Amino acid sequence: MLKKKPKKAAGVEEYVLINGIHQYLFHSGTTNENPVLLFLHGGPGSAASLFAHAFQDKWEELFTVIHWDQRGTGKTLTRNPKSYPTLDVLLEDLLEIVHYLKSRYHKQKIVLLGHSWGSVLGSLFIKRHPEEVAYYIGVGQVINKRASERLIYAKVKEAIVQANDQGALNKLKALGDYPGEQFDTQWLKKSLQLRKLQRKYHLTMKSNISPLKTLLTSPLFQLSDLSALIKGNKANKELMAFLGGFDLNTYPAEYQIPLYYIVGEQDWQTPAALTQDYVQSINAPEKKLYTIPNAGHMTMIDQPALFLSILRDIKNRQEEEAPGIDRPSPHL
Question: In sequence order, which residues have a C-beta less than 8 Å from that of residue 135 and are 6 or more positions away?
Fold first, then answer.
């Protein structure tokens, strides 16, 4: 466990009793004077803690960064193999974790960064509990899952037709009316086939980093993590169904805290165009959209230096300027 008020917060792993079960947190930073940033990982079921070493070293100069393996994911799933999440339970978990971090680091509020599925969880949380969060950063923000899948399908089809790849086109046509109306196991199988075609036409990650190599070289890695990764789909079946029908546009467009969105220009997992439209439609004390060129869904890994410059700009805006005041973006 962490001491009551440590001078450093780098590289600390712990299990904390949260909402009835022990859940995994990984803390890293250079000084506790920095804001606390809680990273909400994607999936659902894909822990980011094992990939932190690949992208966040410099983040720790700006924030104390906390990774949480959500219920049904990673090391939390390994410790609690029969505890599967629902949306309401995850939001309860998140509230307890935020309270724990505020107490541990003596903060009035924390920063939330939601990536992919984590952006769904984060967006719903700040609507319920804006008083807990200083500001929100959405990365690979999920806006409308069904609309995203339709745009992805259209982009893949465009690439296949341009390449005159009849074999790939036949595979695409075999998916039928994609994504369809039901987000079930059949849809999941079809989506995996579409993702294979995405990779073939380089419509996924832009970096040269191997996800498997990054996972295996993580200082946090244990063999049980591979088992948890495999079990993650089953454990998060209910959340996957919710994600399939998720549309952020159906929720009120009013927010009470500053919002910042970071999109990869070549993100064909959560297409940037949907986030651009959404940001224009919402009201918040401050809102800003950052677009990173030559980056896909994993923007922080695809373009780490540009991503860091954006985090620095966001932090500076919060520390040096009053809400609502706009200024030019950093050069990208």
Answer: 111, 112, 257, 258, 259, 260, 286, 314, 318
Interval 127-169: pLDDT, tens: 999 999 999 999 999 999 999 999 999 999 999 999 999 999 9
What ranges do the domains of the chain cover?
Answer: 12-142+210-320, 146-200
The CATH code of domain 12-142+210-320 reads 3.40.50.1820
The pLDDT tens digits for 253-273 are: 999 999 999 999 999 999 999
pTM above 0.85, yes or no: yes
**Measuring CA to CA, which residue among 242, 234, 253 is closest to residue 90?**
242
> Could you give the angle at the alpha carbon of 315 between the alpha carbons of 309 and 318, nearest 5°?
140
- 128: Cβ–Cβ under 8 A, 6 or more apart, which residues? 91
Report phi then psi at 318, rounded to 5: -70, -35
Q: What CA dihedral angle connects 35, 124, 232 and 75, to 10 degrees?
A: 30
Residues facing residue 16 across a β-bridge: 23
Give the number of other Cβ atoms within 10 Å of residue 213's Cβ. Answer: 10
- DSSP annotation of 131 reads G
Q: Does the pLDDT of residue 236 top 90, yes or no?
A: yes
